[in-house]
């Protein structure tokens, strides 16, 4: 799953928190009481709700873009022969948004510090709106890719600016709950994208509407943000104290304003002291000083491993290619594939909510390990299911194929004993036209294309271009859903939590930025290679490969990522600096009159 990262000011990108965190003092997860207080306060102070909702549209856009391309890709493939025949081109259309997001997040960090949160969100909206319009009007796949880059730039900026703006404009006691809404909007945006994809399947222009409609919420957010103020915290750092105080008076009850102003002043002074203690102001200087510390090296290893593992277990193959995977499981219809993909999106959203209630009870490390065990198990089941489906693929019948004499696959020969899988693997790009009475009976192998598809459908047959008809499809869907349930509450959110807690405060920006870039780059690698792997290795072998990688990640996470649950920043730093530091053992500080002693026990 995709949880929007945001990065600490003055670091590699910007402040490192997630949708669940209070930006000051660690990972403050919203609890039940905080959500109740949030409802009460937003009802009495509607200005807060206006701020949060307006900025939170950025999270909605992030989630929508993640989900919409998975369905739109099916129809882009049908409209452009080049896309139909080239898996690399399909991967590029999907992954260029991720590449753009890497640049957008880095540039957005600088924009946030230099010009403020509000201008950054406005620029992100402009980029997203431009990208949506370019894609909607695209005459060629190349122009779609240009639009995807624009959208990615906007997504990258919005993903780290929206949570930051919300956290800095929210009352401290409900900040965790309000920032959590951004995370829920991301998963909500993904679910909404699948619904919209389904709604436009019968409309002329299909994918153009799916991609173009994303410009509407971007336009709405642009208008709303024009009427809202800058972040009071950013204004205070720029010595525009009167403006900051005026905004705070709209957010806080009169009795609390002075206390909040004083708290913000002390917090910013402390932050500036930490920045000064680093000494070097350049990125290279900060990085060199950070890596000279054993504590930072250990923390960075754990943080980067958690982020890379989050992507290499294959989650974005599901989020970006979910309908395609459903078709690989043997469901030929685009409509059916998108309808069934709603299940994965809905389970992902539920998993994000579950994580909010269990991450402080179960612990970060334990939740990650349990999550990885489930991921390994269900990826193995997925691989086995696709292997069984391939072995039981219906044969190609010469008699059936002769019915479509002018559209036969160029590589098919009556003397060859082909089945559906052989047909789909043909170099000239062919499709399998299933038997009209029973899809598991021998069918025809035809050259892929719109003409062949129409001819096949005219005979009340299904035309398969990704997977073959089989009786294993529903088992694949169950395994896919179980994979999402295993992933979302653990590996979906915990890596961001670990990264918010494991670095010394003075180096949290640069280390969090490195880990975030590692996450985005890993995302790009997986997204750009998935379809090519399914063509080169086969679908079952691809999922077995992800299973093996996930098992390796489980072992590495077990031996490198410590438990940070319940520890203060100073205690985490002390734990990482111990001579006998072992990540798989629990650090338990005991408070006494002589200070803190260290106790180690297996969790």
UniProtKB/TrEMBL annotation:
<feature type="transmembrane region" description="Helical">
    <location>
        <begin position="206"/>
        <end position="228"/>
    </location>
</feature>
<comment type="similarity">
    <text>Belongs to the major facilitator superfamily. Sugar transporter (TC 2.A.1.1) family.</text>
</comment>
<dbReference type="InterPro" id="IPR036259">
    <property type="entry name" value="MFS_trans_sf"/>
</dbReference>
<feature type="transmembrane region" description="Helical">
    <location>
        <begin position="543"/>
        <end position="561"/>
    </location>
</feature>
<keyword id="KW-0812">Transmembrane</keyword>
<dbReference type="GO" id="GO:0005886">
    <property type="term" value="C:plasma membrane"/>
</dbReference>
<feature type="transmembrane region" description="Helical">
    <location>
        <begin position="144"/>
        <end position="166"/>
    </location>
</feature>
<dbReference type="InterPro" id="IPR005828">
    <property type="entry name" value="MFS_sugar_transport-like"/>
</dbReference>
<keyword id="KW-0813">Transport</keyword>
<protein>
    <recommendedName>
        <fullName>Major facilitator superfamily (MFS) profile domain-containing protein</fullName>
    </recommendedName>
</protein>
<dbReference type="InterPro" id="IPR003663">
    <property type="entry name" value="Sugar/inositol_transpt"/>
</dbReference>
<dbReference type="InterPro" id="IPR020846">
    <property type="entry name" value="MFS_dom"/>
</dbReference>
<feature type="domain" description="Major facilitator superfamily (MFS) profile">
    <location>
        <begin position="51"/>
        <end position="565"/>
    </location>
</feature>
<feature type="transmembrane region" description="Helical">
    <location>
        <begin position="178"/>
        <end position="200"/>
    </location>
</feature>
<feature type="transmembrane region" description="Helical">
    <location>
        <begin position="472"/>
        <end position="498"/>
    </location>
</feature>
<feature type="transmembrane region" description="Helical">
    <location>
        <begin position="88"/>
        <end position="108"/>
    </location>
</feature>
<feature type="transmembrane region" description="Helical">
    <location>
        <begin position="510"/>
        <end position="531"/>
    </location>
</feature>
<dbReference type="InterPro" id="IPR005829">
    <property type="entry name" value="Sugar_transporter_CS"/>
</dbReference>
<keyword id="KW-1133">Transmembrane helix</keyword>
<feature type="transmembrane region" description="Helical">
    <location>
        <begin position="47"/>
        <end position="76"/>
    </location>
</feature>
<feature type="transmembrane region" description="Helical">
    <location>
        <begin position="120"/>
        <end position="138"/>
    </location>
</feature>
<keyword id="KW-0472">Membrane</keyword>
<feature type="transmembrane region" description="Helical">
    <location>
        <begin position="366"/>
        <end position="390"/>
    </location>
</feature>
<dbReference type="InterPro" id="IPR050814">
    <property type="entry name" value="Myo-inositol_Transporter"/>
</dbReference>
<feature type="transmembrane region" description="Helical">
    <location>
        <begin position="339"/>
        <end position="359"/>
    </location>
</feature>
<dbReference type="Pfam" id="PF00083">
    <property type="entry name" value="Sugar_tr"/>
</dbReference>
<feature type="transmembrane region" description="Helical">
    <location>
        <begin position="299"/>
        <end position="319"/>
    </location>
</feature>
<dbReference type="GO" id="GO:0005366">
    <property type="term" value="F:myo-inositol:proton symporter activity"/>
</dbReference>
């Amino acid at each position: 799953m995709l949880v929007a990262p945001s990065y600490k000011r003055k670091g590699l990108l910007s402040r490192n928190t997630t949708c669940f965190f209070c930006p000051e003092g660690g990972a403050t997860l919203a609890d039940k009481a905080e959500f109740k207080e949030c409802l009460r306060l937003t009802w009495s102070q509607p200005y807060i709700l206006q701020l949060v909702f307006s900025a939170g549209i950025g999270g909605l856009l992030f989630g929508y873009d993640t989900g919409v391309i998975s369905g739109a890709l099916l129809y882009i493939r049908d409209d452009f022969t080049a896309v139909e025949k080239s898996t690399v081109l399909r991967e590029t259309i999907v992954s260029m948004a991720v590449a753009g997001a890497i640049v957008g997040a880095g540039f957005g960090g600088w924009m946030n510090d230099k010009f403020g949160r509000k201008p950054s969100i406005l620029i992100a909206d402009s980029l997203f709106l431009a990208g949506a319009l370019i894609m909607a009007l695209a005459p060629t796949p190349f122009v779609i890719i240009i639009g995807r880059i624009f959208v990615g730039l906007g997504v990258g900026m919005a993903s780290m600016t929206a949570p930051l703006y919300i956290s800095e404009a929210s009352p401290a006691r409900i900040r965790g709950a309000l920032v959590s809404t951004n995370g829920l909007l991301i998963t909500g945006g993904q679910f909404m994208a699948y619904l919209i994809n389904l709604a436009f399947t019968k409309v002329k222009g299909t994918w153009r509407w799916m991609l173009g409609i994303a410009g509407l919420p971007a336009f709405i957010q642009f208008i709303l943000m024009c009427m809202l103020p800058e972040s009071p915290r950013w204004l205070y750092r720029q010595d525009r104290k009167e403006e900051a105080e005026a905004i705070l008076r709209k957010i806080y009850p009169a009795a609390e304003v002075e206390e909040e102003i004083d708290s913000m002043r002390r917090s910013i002074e402390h932050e500036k002291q930490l920045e000064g203690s680093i000494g070097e102001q350049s990125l290279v200087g900060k990085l060199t000083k950070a890596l000279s510390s054993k504590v930072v090296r250990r923390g960075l290893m754990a943080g980067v491993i958690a982020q890379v593992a989050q992507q290499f277990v294959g989650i974005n193959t599901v989020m970006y290619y979910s309908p395609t995977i459903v078709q690989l499981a043997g469901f030929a219809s685009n409509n059916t594939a998108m309808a069934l993909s709603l299940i994965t999106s809905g389970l992902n959203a539920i998993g994000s909510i579950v994580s909010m209630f269990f991450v402080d009870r179960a612990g970060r490390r334990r939740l990650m390990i349990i999550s990885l065990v489930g991921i390994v198990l269900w990826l193995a089941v997925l691989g086995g299911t696709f292997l069984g489906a391939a072995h039981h693929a219906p044969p190609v019948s010469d008699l059936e194929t002769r019915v479509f004499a002018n559209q036969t696959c160029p590589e098919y020969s009556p003397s060859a004993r082909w089945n559906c899988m052989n047909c789909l693997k043909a170099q000239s790009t062919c499709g399998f036209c299933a038997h009209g009475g029973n899809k598991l009976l021998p069918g025809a192998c035809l050259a892929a294309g719109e003409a062949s598809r129409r001819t096949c459908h005219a005979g009340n047959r299904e035309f398969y271009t990704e997977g073959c008809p089989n009786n294993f499809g529903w088992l694949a869907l169950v395994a896919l859903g179980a994979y999402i349930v295993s992933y979302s509450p653990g590996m979906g959110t915990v890596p961001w939590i670990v990264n918010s807690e494991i670095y010394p405060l003075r180096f949290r920006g640069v280390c969090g930025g490195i880990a975030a870039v590692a996450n985005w780059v890993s995302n790009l690698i997986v997204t750009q290679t998935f379809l090519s792997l399914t063509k080169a290795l086969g679908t079952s072998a691809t999922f077995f490969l992800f299973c093996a990688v996930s098992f390796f990640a489980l072992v590495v996470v077990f031996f490198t990522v410590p438990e940070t649950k319940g520890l203060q920043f100073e205690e985490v730093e002390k734990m990482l600096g111990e001579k006998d530091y072992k990540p798989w053992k629990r650090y338990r500080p005991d408070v006494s009159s002589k200070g803190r002693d260290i106790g180690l026990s297996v969790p």
